[in-house]
Amino acid sequence: MTEHHTAPTPISKLTAKKRPAVRYAIRVLVSFCVLLVAAQGWSAWTARQSRLAEHASATSNMAGALAAQAESTVRIVDTVLAGVVERVEHDGSSPAANDRLHAHMRNMVSQVKEVHGLFVYGPDGSWLVTSLERPIAANNADREYFQYHEHNRSRAVHVGKPIRSRSSGVWVLPVSRRIDKPDGSFGGVALGTIEISFFAELYESFDVGHQGAVVLARDDGTLVYRRPFNEKLVATSVANGPIFSMYRSSGPVGTAMLRSNIDGVTRLYSYRHLGTLPLIVAVAKSKGEILSEWHQSTVLLSAVTLLAVLLLAGVGVRLVRQIMIRDQLEAELRTAKQGLQQRNQELTVLATNDGLTGIANRRHFEETLRLELKRARRTGAPLSLVLLDVDFFKKYNDRYGHVAGDECLRQVAGALGGVLARPTDLAARYGGEEFAMILPATGQVGARYVAERLRLAVMDLGIPHADNPLGIATISAGACTFHGTPGENDDPEAFVMRADALLYRAKAQGRNRVCTDLDAVGIVPAPPLAI
């Protein structure tokens, strides 16, 4: 029997060749798009790092310049003080010598802008000579700098902690030297003061942006000056702040991206210790301001890259389609059908879920409430509704901003979802900061229990809220129950109004509490769950 071999048809040959061609075209297209996106990502990342490095160098140089100016200021005052000490130790403290010294000190204060005032105190702390026209009757033996020199024989300059001047009432930085008697014993203190506002005028000339900061502090963490200036911060301790944490670990010079403990802004800090003086100067620029231009250029370049990828993908798809054969149509139709079903599912989710919190939206809530009321009327099972909102939420938005407010709502929604364990329960965002829970087959006691659990769960989140008496975010809730008894109103709007009235009763009673139907009829409710 003769064996016949059927030769492959031209169509079969073309099909065998077209299938690899399609795969190769897709691989090349995808690889090129990935390379294009990766190149743009690498370019954006290197540009970002370059910009940060550039500003790190700039802030470091600025910190060096400010440190030099601060050191120069202290050294100038110290030079004046050295002259005062020499006069006192050489000329003594006779009335004539004091008159000459007074004239000299007044002349120095008028000529040296860095000096706010000059003072000489006796060994008991009494005021001997000052640059004032009329010295006040006071004693400075209680001052830190006086006690330092009284118990320390060092002749070096001492930079003390910021104090309020007893003569002028303004904040000053004391710079002092010890005065010795001829026998070497303690003979008093010579003091020169630098007004804190002098540093403000000096540092305001440096451009650190709208959210930048300049800090001058003692190396023990005592704040001397901070831009933006806040008088309440003068002489407070920032020893636990990010600058001093870095100083203790990195030494006298450093640069790092840190988050401020004072205002919470993330900045690029550069600090420098002032040599032998116990002072640290730090300059900071806001990370957001540093990267603002980079963000704009990156968004623009990313948009161009995306457009190029889309155009390339569009052309590639058209080319691939030209070489696809008919037997792929069925798979494409099946894929298209699956994609349509997925899109329909996504549209269904968008139609029923809240875009911010991810839980059910008001439309879904109203439809579900209407159906559950009908079911409760039909079956006789109780149906509970809980309305709740975040206490003082407008104040929260005013203080922390709407972005933080949205995050607060998302956390509350998460806590709400965690409290509801049954698949038949529904959590929904009713509107604004107001939420709702539909609890089928749940009576008044159960509704109170669920609402109390949610109230405690929100407190456990510990969301900071300075305008709430408790200091954290809390909720108030109203819970009502439909029993399905004959004649009971099953109108959804009336049911919501009942819960809303109980919610407002909870807010009127002080907030952070739950009011139910039991409260409304005068029945003593169960105590709140333990915190």
Task: Please give a structural write-up.
Helices cover 50% and strands 19% of the residues. It is built from 14 helices and 16 strands. It has helices spanning 10-91, 95-111, 144-150, 196-203, 242-250, 287-290, 292-323, 329-352, 362-379, 393-400, 402-419, 444-461, 492-508, 517-520, and strands at 117-121, 127-130, 158-159, 163-164, 171-180, 186-195, 213-218, 223-227, 253-259, 266-273, 279-286, 383-390, 426-431, 434-440, 475-482, 514-516. Strands 1, 2, 3, 4, 5 and 6 form a six-stranded antiparallel β-sheet that branches. Strands 8-7-11-10-9 form a five-stranded antiparallel β-sheet, sandwiched between helices. Strand 10 and strand 11 (279-286) form a beta hairpin. The chain starts with 9 loop residues before the first helix and ends in an 11-residue tail after the last helix. Residues 1-5 and 523-527 have low confidence and may be disordered.
Estimate the mean pLDDT confidence: 86
- Second CATH tier, the architecture of the largest domain: 2-Layer Sandwich
Name of the CATH class of the largest domain:
Alpha Beta
What series of H and E elements makes up the topology? Answer: HHEEHEEEEHEEHEEEHHHHEHHEEHEHEH
Give the name of the CATH superfamily of the largest domain: PAS domain
Largest sheet: 6 strands, antiparallel
Number of strand elements: 16
Helix content: 40-55%
Oligomeric composition of the shown chains: single chain
Sheet/helix structural class: alpha+beta
CATH topology-level fold name of the largest domain? Beta-Lactamase
User: What is the rounded Rg?
Assistant: 38 Å
Q: Which strand-content bin applies to the residues?
A: 15-25%
Number of helices: 14
Tell me, briefly, the overall form.
flat
**Gap from first CA to last CA:** 94 Å
List low-pLDDT spans: 1-5, 523-527
Number of domains: 3
